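Reply to dn_fold:

You asked what the input looked like. This is it:
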Amino acid sequence: MVVDDHPIWRDGVARDLAEAGLTVVATADGVAAARRRAAATRPAVVLMDMHLPDGNGADATAAVLEASPGSTVLVLSALSHRTVENHVQATLRKLQLANRVELARYAIERGLD
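and this is what came back:
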């Protein structure tokens, strides 16, 4: 599941994950939607933004884990697009990964959050 208030980012990440062969069971734009969708879909992994319109990522993480205790939450957050892009590119180079989907898989496979 992908939780982010920005529709272009949320939909782009969901699309990229699906194109990489992963199943995206839901998307949500805030805490309340994340809670409802986690209860309905029981996602294995949740990609979580920290800045949401009806709370923050910590609130949403607690709500998701209450609704779906078996989920793993991977928190993604940014101060600016340029800052995030620089950090992502540096991490991809350091880990010798090709793209953000491989980075998400890397974190998921190692149980990083």
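The helical segments are 7-19, 31-41, 57-67, 81-95, 100-109.
Hope that clears it up.
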